[in-house]
Amino acid sequence: MHLFLIQTGVRPARLSFVGLAALMAVVLLSQMEPTNASDGSSAKAELAGTWNFAIDRDDIGIAERWFASTLPDQIDLPGILQSQGYGNEITTDTPWVLGLGGEWWKLQSPELRQAFSQPGRVEVPFLSQPIRHYLGAAWYQRVIHTPSDWQGQRVELFLERPHWQSTVWIDDQEIDTQRSLVAPHRFELGILSPGSHRLTVRLDNRMIVSDPKGNNGHTPDAHAVSDALGATWNGIAGSIELRATPPVWLADVQAFPNVEDKTVRLAIAIGNLTGEAGTGVVSVAGVQKQVDWQHDGGQANVEVVLKPNASTWSEYAPNLQQLQVLLESPVGTDSQQVTFGFREITWQGTTPLINGREVNFRTTHFGLDFPLTGYPATDVESWKQIIRRCQEFGLNGIRFHSCCPPEAAFTAADELGFYLQPECGLWSPFYPDGVFTKFLEEETALLLRAYGNHPSFVMFSPSNEPSGRYTQVTPEWASRWYQRDPRRLYAAGTGWNRPEQVFGGPQFAGLVRFGKGELRNESGWFGKDFRTALEGVEIPVLAHEIGQWCAYPDFDVIDKFTGYMQPSNYRIFRYIAERNGVADLNKPFAEASGKFQLACYKEELEANLRTPGLAGHQMLDIRDYLGQGTALIGVLDAFWDPKSYVTAEQFRRFHSQTVPLVRLHQRIFQTNDTLECDAELYHFGEQTLNGAQPYWKVMDAGGNVLAAGQWEARDIARGKCQPLGKVKCQLESLPAPATYRLVVGLEGTSIENDWNFWLYPESQPTTESKEVLLTSRWSEAKAELAQGGTVLFNPGERDLPESQSPRMRRTPVFWNIQMTVRPPRNPLPRFDAMLGMLCEAEHPALASFPTESHCDWQWTSIVNGVRSVNLTHAPQDLQPIVYAIDDWNRNWRLGVIFECRVEHGRLLVCSIPLDRQSPVTEQLRESLLQYAAGEAALPMATLTPQQADALWTANIAEAEAPGERTFDPDLDDGSGGNKKP
């Protein structure tokens, strides 16, 4: 029966209620095997297996007392109903839980939408959708057996990660209702009589917490509840257990270490079901202390002195401590093993300290999407695989955006030395005494109880990008909870730039910008930094959601979606690429755009590492994001696998615990220039680098060293902006034009980093040929072609209509186009953006213009704002020498440099203006003219005069104005503000 359900997804034939009840009693009792611990710890009975089940679409189960009868269907737990054949098929009316990313789809042509809106095949481009969708109540039920040796014991039901409101009945008695998105649901079942009982759990995954006035802000986009990353599942993940203890028990033990004194204070909560006050003894590590409790329980504090050589916990030495705590009472003995790290986190000015040593955080975003299962992993090994991948790419932490991972994530991070910043499952408006403020208090207490002992839990934020009157709520929250539990630093929210987030009581802040400056994007690139944003700041600040630079998708990733989440978005993007004739370029586009993305990440991350006083950064994201319109921003795919264009070793050259950096403000040089820049080191390794020998060298494309130097050897302690020396290199003797690399490293180590630069001649001889007409007038070009001549045509803006000729940019798409073209910022969703360029680097037209197959900084110096040529409707054999890579939502075939025959003539087109005074432009013009004047073979593609004319006139209809739509003014699209046009 179990295998049949899993493999086919078909429900078994229904038995009668009586027959099914008898069968299930046998099956379930055989699965439930209570275990009793000999050390006095809780006895447990695992409840994983096949449960009875019923879906409650009409919300009638409570009124009809479903808990009092046997439910008719079957389901496996742990697990979720949508992946087991239950719930609703995806339709055009599916009530997606989200507020971001869906509007773009409504503006597309009926033809495109209808292709993916057929019965049984409804797909959307704004997320990777689940197999099925369901919002509402569902009932889960099984028979449990209380063994005779549990006589007189208090029994607790433990549900590790239900989603997300649960109500429990034992037989016909309702026990309790709980709601939490961040912590286990724990139900006191009291003292159960030996024998069989019917356990019923009702789960509801609708928006349980909602503002009665409808002011929910972006709550539907919180990653704990949103469809953006598949978090509308209904079910239970992780452990499902009965736990038996004496009626007086250790309800909670929290460990508060004091690193300086080598002590740990245990704050103990004692539970009591006897209804009477009492006295007992707590024993731990040779310490015994008499404790008292009242009729409803009690509190106790026990201080334990650890050994003088007790090891501390950090990312370098993740040493863990364990203490066995015993409570002896007149009604029995209970015990609990407490695991913690000997770790304290504090701060001094803008510098965070762990155990008194400076730390810098290199973290990434994670929204708990698990495409294969649909719900978070609850086993330690799965989390270790994720964390190890992060560490391979130089990260030392994860920020969980509007969500909190299960216990296994904290355990894995503890053992591997990794820092975590969970958040309550909120992206909400906060008001004094508001519904979300009250829920925040509930969730904070539950989260700290569940995971407070984990040393990896170093930072805590109440919410992503809070709204409402949050400055009256969250700064006070951060101050108050820090006073109660100072084992971590608290923020007033992740994101934004309000003074209250810095001066109102928090101990750290994650900010987009502050004061006079930005904390992300281009203002800090090319040797600069973000220090102006930190003026006057006196707490640690992390740069919020840095990066977000997109790359074109490799559609092979579709084959990896073999589980819960379906690649609907990727399939639609591929369909558009096929329709527009660029599907065959998928691999080259993905590779070339990825290299450009990687260059942008290098600049972004190095700018953060260079910024004095910046405590770290939060990437968004090291991996692709499957919702909110689909943001292909990762150097890893959604399955944590590196993409084809990057290795972990390459990434760590500019993003790891030790990174050489330079303040190289330009990348374009001429032979009469001198390359000068300061070099420095970012070092947050475990030890001082004793006797480090820094060096620099200039290398050509073949790996030959053409210039080199060393600086004085020295000891390098931990810290940022540690000077190594000045690079000074005369360039007059180096061949030009050419691409070079400046390399800085430390002798005898793998610590090394490099930066491309381009060298051009001091003066550029101009090729002049009576055989080639260089013109920016199509009428002249057309006449020359008709005579069989050769033309280098340089179209201007008047030749390239705005509706069909998108402008190229110096950076790729930020986050994704589906969100950043929203009105009113851009009432017509015109994609003036690109994902880089694909260059036929070996083509003779580029023989004198140094380039690789992708866009790099020499290209961006001349293409920003320049329109590409739309070749979507041109003959398919017209393949550009240089493509502009269009956004995957549109997939136009765009040419920057291309050639063809027109009538008897030969046409070479370059959309980049060739009359500008820059060494890069002059070199490109020279290379193109040399090629056009040479004896190269004629191009294969041929255009009729009419087809050639069509390239310079509008052949794609202007987008229709979308009309009135709601705009989300609180979202930051990376443009530096939210000003309306």
Outline the secondary-structure elements.
Layout: H1 2-8, H2 17-31, E1 43-46, E2 49-56, E3 73-77, E4 79-80, H3 103-106, H4 110-115, E5 117-118, E6 121-122, E7 129-130, E8 137-146, E9 154-163, E10 165-170, E11 173-179, E12 185-191, E13 195-204, E14 235-245, E15 248-258, E16 263-272, E17 278-284, E18 287-293, E19 298-305, E20 320-329, E21 332-341, E22 345-348, E23 351-354, E24 357-358, E25 361-366, H5 380-392, E26 397-400, H6 407-416, E27 419-421, E28 429-430, H7 435-451, E29 459-460, E30 467-468, H8 474-484, E31 489-490, H9 500-503, E32 509-511, E33 513-514, E34 517-518, E35 541-547, E36 565-566, H10 568-579, H11 586-610, E37 616-620, H12 648-652, E38 658-662, E39 668-670, E40 674-683, E41 689-692, E42 694-700, E43 705-710, E44 714-716, E45 719-730, E46 738-746, E47 752-760, E48 772-775, H13 778-786, E49 790-793, H14 817-820, E50 837-839, H15 857-863, E51 869-870, E52 882-885, E53 893-902, E54 905-910, H16 919-933, E55 942-943, H17 945-950
Parallel strand pairs: 25-26, 25-37, 26-27, 28-30, 29-31, 32-35, 35-37, 39-47, 48-49, 49-54, 53-55
Antiparallel strand pairs: 1-14, 2-3, 2-8, 4-14, 5-6, 7-36, 8-13, 9-12, 9-14, 10-11, 10-13, 15-16, 16-19, 17-18, 17-20, 20-21, 22-23, 23-24, 33-34, 38-40, 40-45, 41-44, 42-43, 42-46, 46-47, 50-52, 51-53, 52-53, 53-54
